[in-house]
Design a protein that fits this description.
Elements lengths: L1 H13 L4 H16 L5 H10 L7 H14 L2 H13 L5 H14 L5 H18 L4 H12 L9 H10 L3 H7 L1 H22 L10 H27 L4 H19 L8 H31 L2 H12 L3 H18 L2 H18 L4 H14 L8 H9 L4 H24 L2 H10 L1
Length: about 425
């Protein structure tokens, strides 16, 4: 029956149903055919799927990212980063990586970072002679840093469904996030030299530096507030997300004066719509998790893996391939919410650190945002860069492989993930 459940879900997705509709309808059909449960279980499990004290942080972080984009704060960060690295060959590509790393400390969403950073930088990159493919590729791949570097919306998902320490998950993503930025920087240096992009002479002076710093210092402080609040436990995650909204609202309205009170309703509306598209998936995943539990999918997988006599290293490469493939054909959220709770106990039995496993799974699925046919970031970039989807897929592969290299590194060198959480907690 569990195979039938997933087959129905894929069928409905192939027929053009939205993801949450496909999951909900296939779950309802399963319950009807099973005949052992009342349809009231639909309501109970869907309510249970969103019954969490941590989940309200998600719309708050999404709202922070939307505010920073609409208020022009992203542009200020780009100008500040451009002062330091803009004069190098391929300088704006380095700016994209730096700004994505800073924005990662605010929104925690790859899609939000991709849309905000690309909307600001792509036109400037085009004006400076960068081709559309290169600009789209680096803006897309650098956005994947967002869900890895804290705070991270996918890490919140992992914590909610598994009970793992959210603080440890957040801190575990710091080194992988920095490694992603470093590997992408090396890739940009190689590509920029091969394409022979011209260097840009910029006016370097203390007066200009302090002018840019004055204009961007409040924006730079925002991610520091969020990260410090979560790591040191001054406030809960939901509280720090709410404080981040108040902080960004204050600097946008009264310091930068880049938005007015009339702009707030459209910003909140956009954030609410985006948030609801995530929360409704959480609801139907609650139904799927219930079905997975009663079908004892975890025990069945454990017996299969034990029968194959997998070592933890073989299991890690198995899960890496599995999640990379699932990320190609499904949205990351349901894959994470359905399969992570099933595979986590198996990984623990094999001696794998659960924080390490959680970070590895998140990076696996976030790379799926860059892979066809589902890759959400690819569709955003095709609109921003005005590229055909085929061209977008062709130009993104070298950067996807670069991120897969980071994935393999943190998968088989677990101390890169676990060192900081063990040190701080």
């Amino acid at each position: 029956m569990i195979i039938f459940l997933f087959a129905m879900m894929f069928l409905f997705i192939g027929l053009g149903f939205s993801l949450w509709t496909a999951m909900g309808v296939s779950g309802m059909i399963y319950i009807l055919l099973k005949g052992e449960f009342s349809l009231r279980i639909l309501v109970q499990t869907m309510v249970g799927g969103i019954d969490s004290t941590v989940l309200p942080a998600i719309p708050f972080f999404i709202c922070v990212g939307t505010l920073m984009n609409r208020s022009g704060i992203t542009k200020k960060l780009a100008d500040f980063a451009d002062f330091f690295v803009g004069r190098f060959r391929g300088g704006l590509a380095y700016v994209s990586i730096v700004v994505s790393l800073i924005m990662a400390g605010v929104s925690g969403s790859a899609v939000a970072d991709a849309s905000s950073v690309s909307a600001v930088l792509h036109p400037i990159m085009k004006d400076r002679g960068y081709d559309d493919e290169f600009a789209a590729a680096i803006n897309s791949s650098s956005a994947v840093i967002g869900p890895i570097f804290p705070p991270s919306i996918p890490m919140i998902f992992i914590s909610v469904i598994s009970g793992l320490s959210l603080g440890k998950l957040f801190v575990g993503g710091i080194v992988p996030g920095i490694l992603m930025a470093l590997f992408l920087t090396i890739m940009v240096a190689f590509t920029s030299r091969r394409k022979n992009y011209r260097t840009l002479k910029t006016h370097m002076s203390l007066s200009r530096f302090f002018s840019l710093l004055k204009d961007s210092i409040f924006a730079i402080i925002a991610p520091l507030i969020i990260i410090a609040g979560v790591i040191f436990g001054f406030v809960t995650l939901v509280e720090v997300a709410a404080l981040a909204i108040l902080y960004v609202l204050f600097i946008s309205l009264f310091i930068y004066r880049s938005i007015t009170f009339n702009d707030l309703f459209p910003i909140f509306k956009e954030s609410a719509i985006f948030s609801s598209s995530i929360m409704i998936i959480f609801a139907v995943v609650g139904l799927f998790q219930y079905i997975v539990a009663i079908e004892q999918l975890g025990d069945k997988l454990l017996h299969v893996i034990q029968g194959l006599h997998m070592s933890k290293h073989v299991f890690l490469i198995f899960t890496t391939i599995f999640f990379l493939l699932m990320g190609c054909i499904l949205d990351a959220v349901p894959v994470m919410l359905i399969f992570f709770p099933v595979l986590l106990p198996i990984s623990i039995q094999l001696g794998i650190d659960p924080i390490h496993f959680g970070v590895v799974v998140v990076l696996n699925l976030m790379i799926g945002l860059l892979t066809p046919p589902i890759g959400g970031i690819l569709f955003i970039q095709t609109k921003i860069a005005n590229l055909d989807f085929d061209r977008m897929v062709k130009c993104i592969w070298p950067y996807t492989l670069t991120l897969i290299a980071v994935l393999l590194l943190i998968t088989y060198v677990p101390i890169l993930v676990t060192f900081l959480p063990n040190l701080l907690f």
